[in-house]
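User: These chains co-purify. Model them together.
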Amino acid sequence: MNSLLVENPGWMTTVQDLGRPGFGVLGVSPSGAADPVALQLGNLLLGNAPGAAALEMTLVGGRYLFPEGGVIALAGADFGAKLNGQPVEMWIPHAVRAGGTLELGLTRSGARCYLCVAGGIQVEKFLGSASTHLLSGLGGFAGRGLHKGDVLQLGAAEQRIRRRSISPRVLETLKLRKCLRVTKGPQADWFSEAATRGFFEGTFRVSEDSDRLGLRLEGASLALESPREMSSEGVSLGAVQVTPSGQPIILFVEQQTAGGYPKIANVIGEDLHCVGQLRPRDEITFARVSLEEARALWIAHQQLLNSGEELFA
Amino acid sequence: MEFRAASDQAMLVYLGEEIGLESHQRVFQLLRLLQQEPLAWVRNLQPAYCSLLVSFDPCAVDHHEVEATLRRYEERAEKMALPQPRVVEIPVCYGGEFGPDLEEVAAAHNLSPSRVIELHLSQSYRAYFLGFAPGFAYLGDLPAEIATPRLGTPRKKVVAGSVAIAGTQTAVYPFATPGGWRLIGRTPLKVFCKEREPMGLIAVGDEVRFRAITREEFAAWPPR
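Assistant: Joint model of the two components:
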């Protein structure tokens, strides 16, 4: 069986797939790739199932050795990857010879780059998913980020290069947005008019203190019309909750499943993969859309991802 | 039943206004009905004190259809008989290094630490729902005499098994996570274990009782 040896894990590299939805009753959040679009496209390039497990690298790539070789594709942010010292293109399959090394540096675009391998990364699944949940140390490879010296098993796969790339039209449709579209949050009416204006007219900066649990934003302080208490309730992925200090936080893939802060808005499903590519100090704005528009965008997005050969150039 | 869109793919269903057994029962009834007769488009159910968050597949349904369908479940959910709660007993070694906030909680209420322990042990608690981390159950309600606000600054790391209180709730931390609740003791039990069935020690709807154990019993757990 082919394997992958971690020579340097970069800043934070974890095994991720499309997560484990459906276990909220146990207090388990879905987790999964921060940019599921990149993960799926990377896998499809290799002929894998779209949700096969891959490595999610954060801001800094690292170095990975393939003792038996393999076939790989890089998707998501550009980390300046080199295969055996030669620059390699993103979004196309590459053959790696036995003993080949992939080295990636600092990000040149978004926050996360996915290293997809033919056959997928094989780890023991937890509640049906290979995703790492860092807070609880469950899932993925030993429930943690990768360390130097870790050896990961790769799934059996036909070691054949498919000469294909993602169609420019698809990449254009799925391109990253810095203006995130949101629907109204369940407590949107609790906020003052000034806060609502500040939220939609202001620019917010992603704080250094952001991770897979949530992205803290710096910008206009968002006040409630009048102080109000609420009891904790289930929180949806992409909810923009506001703490008593007035600071908004976008709840992300490893979020707490319930929380007691009012939510002013919720990032639409179609734009969640853009959240996964936001880096600290990136600046973003918000634009309001209706539930109907958000749904239409999501359906179109799913149809595109499921369009088979039309995805490829 | 009151409905509010949470996101383009999730609906909040409110079934009460006050934290308490009455709201909990209505949430639990609807949850059980949806677990027994699953709807194909439901992606996740997240119960809380007074609400159920229903995440759905927007390719299959929209918010109007979610609301219409759940309204049809409403009457049947209300008639749903709930089983007697399962009783879960949790051994706790209180105070000292296991409960670094016990003295402060006692001082805040002008009670002795032993009186705080006595009050914490004086009743059983309902597991309203699980959240925060896998297996973390929100247990209520604490005797009013020991209800204490959470810490101003959360700890960066709480030891797994820590028994804590915040507001009118109590809980056991399943993992070493950050935490803002006040720590009064620790259990030697594993709260969440992926090799066990069920994985969680406490499930929604359970009745939880604490039992005091000594440091020696804690160190020698499990008893022979």
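The radius of gyration of chain B is 19 Å.
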